[in-house]
């Protein structure tokens, strides 16, 4: 059996980790399969994929990124036919091709020719012109679709010519929650972990802290952890903003690291103050796994992750004043949210843990493979070999 797993990234942010977990789940269920992983280039993700992939190949992918749209629509357009042909050839050679995220355009286009072999796993909520393009690609592909939240599915709409599923991302977490130590007698440790971009809301958190009375600002410590995608300018600008706002003594700007567990252990709460819709919110899930209540924007899939007033808190997106007010409540009344730790961990284990998602993903893959293997023209011996446990 041949399975190809295609991913547009190479780092270890949310969609990268979700992809690696899907590959691991496929390997666990199909231990003898030939699993080829396709990436655009080498990077930190390779280290965790090596244990599960038969091989990892690096090929140019035609990836629809907002910051590259002008180049893709002009000089890169000549490369698209070659990319689609390469994708079609891999689809033809494999029994199943699992494509992570909707922005891998060459595979979405090629899938139309062999849709019974393709599964697209969608992890983004696009807006504006990009939404129209990606929805069009999804419908064109006729591939089966996995959405990582109900919010993501609603953004794309129901496909007419394919099966669609909602499967929450499975997230690896610690064996048990980390003890909560915050009692109001020391500064509240607040973590924001994520890529530095227009969506994640680092500036909103800084404005929220700046809006608080000076005596409460002194009772907060913040870590902003992450980097910008191939842009040092955004990273420098964020560090400069911290200085300009006079928050250098309260806020640290730290680089992305592949394993963020030390930051979760340091934190008391985790903020996800996203300005625009998150398709799900992996950081909020990881926070609950570690026993760190998440404070999130009430937007997109984040409202499906965090139960407001039970496992964490919701605030309006982009509202620095509301975020600051909620932080003040958290600082002044730690006893009011002590129960969030256990409730969040229980929600994580029941809905968002790795085994729950892995079972769903592999069930979809197994059903898809039945369709492929049963098609006319395949040799009976091959069909028997591929369905043997």
Automatic annotation (TrEMBL):
Coiled coil: none annotated. InterPro entries: Glyco_trans_1 (IPR001296). Residues 188-345 form the Glycosyl transferase family domain. It comes from the Bacteria. GO terms for molecular function: glycosyltransferase activity. CDD domains: GT4_PimA-like. This is Glycosyltransferase family 4 protein.
């Amino acid at each position: 059996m041949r399975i190809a797993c295609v991913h547009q990234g190479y780092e270890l942010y949310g969609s990268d980790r979700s992809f690696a977990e899907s590959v691991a789940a496929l390997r666990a269920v199909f231990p003898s399969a030939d699993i080829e992983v396709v990436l655009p280039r080498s990077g930190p993700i390779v280290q965790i994929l090596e244990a599960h992939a038969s091989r990892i190949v690096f090929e140019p992918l035609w990836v629809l990124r907002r910051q590259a749209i002008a180049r893709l629509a002009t000089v890169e357009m000549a490369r698209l036919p070659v990319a689609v042909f390469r994708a079609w050839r891999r689809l033809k050679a494999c029994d199943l091709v699992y494509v992570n995220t909707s922005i891998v355009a060459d595979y979405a286009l090629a899938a139309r020719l062999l849709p019974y072999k393709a599964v697209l796993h969608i992890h983004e909520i696009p807006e504006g012109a990009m939404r129209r393009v990606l929805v069009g690609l999804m419908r064109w592909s006729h591939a089966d679709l996995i959405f990582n939240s109900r919010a993501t599915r609603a953004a794309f709409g129901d496909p007419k010519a394919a099966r669609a599923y909602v499967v929450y991302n499975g997230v690896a977490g610690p064996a048990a929650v980390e003890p909560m130590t915050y009692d109001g007698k020391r500064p509240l440790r607040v973590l924001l972990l994520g890529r530095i971009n227009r969506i994640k809301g680092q500036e909103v958190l800084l404005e929220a802290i700046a809006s608080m009375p000076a005596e409460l600002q002194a009772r907060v410590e913040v870590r902003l952890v992450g980097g910008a995608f191939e842009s040092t300018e955004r990273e420098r600008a964020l560090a400069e903003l911290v200085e300009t706002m006079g928050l250098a003594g309260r806020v640290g700007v730290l680089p992305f690291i592949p394993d963020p567990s030390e930051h979760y252990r340091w934190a008391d709460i985790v903020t996800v103050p996203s300005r625009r819709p998150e398709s799900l919110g992996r950081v909020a899930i990881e926070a609950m796994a570690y026993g760190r209540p998440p404070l999130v924007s009430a937007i997109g899939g984040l409202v499906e992750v965090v139960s407001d007033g039970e496992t964490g808190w919701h605030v309006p997106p982009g509202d620095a004043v509301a975020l600051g007010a909620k932080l003040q409540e958290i600082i002044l009344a730690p006893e009011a949210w002590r129960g969030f730790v256990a409730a969040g961990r229980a929600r994580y284990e029941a809905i968002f843990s790795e085994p729950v998602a892995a079972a769903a993903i592999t069930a979809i893959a197994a059903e898809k493979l039945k369709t492929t293997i049963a098609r006319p023209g395949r040799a009976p011996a091959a069909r028997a070999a591929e369905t043997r446990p």
